[in-house]
What does this fold into?
Amino acid sequence: MNKKLLLISILIVLCLSILSFVIYKKSQTTPQNNLQEATGLQTEVTLSDLRTHITPDDCWIVVDNNVYNISPYISVHPGGREAITQYCGSDATEAFQKRNEKGPHPKNASDFLNTLIMGPMVTK
Ligand code: HEM
It folds into this structure.
């Protein structure tokens, strides 16, 4: 009987320790981290950050000094995949404006682009 009681006590102490650890870890999350988790928004993106997102599955581009994660849009782009993928990891401002000499993209394109923002580009 005493053994059983001891086992239950050990279990309770163990559970409480795990619970305290989880609560402690959660309390360490700053509001900024929460924002990043919720929106994917970063405070700033450096050139070396940008250069690590160069594949269609993980493609970041710069347009007007802002960085966008364009991967989810590549497969539905009316101008084709290649028009965008060649700019993964680099500045696509001019290409986005020129649209292969067809003139600037219409407003709906910029509106959509804004939903994919990661943060401003910084030069360090
Ligand atoms: C980065 C370089 C890009 C290039 C070179 C490019 C090029 C093009 C081209 C050539 C077209 C015309 C397709 C056609 O009418 O046959 C087009 C259309 C379009 N693109 Fe892009 N694009 C780029 C990036 C983007 C991005 C980042 C977005 C949005 C997130 C976007 C959204 C659109 C939309 C919505 C259309 C259809 C426009 C319409 O209704 O006329 N494009 N693009």
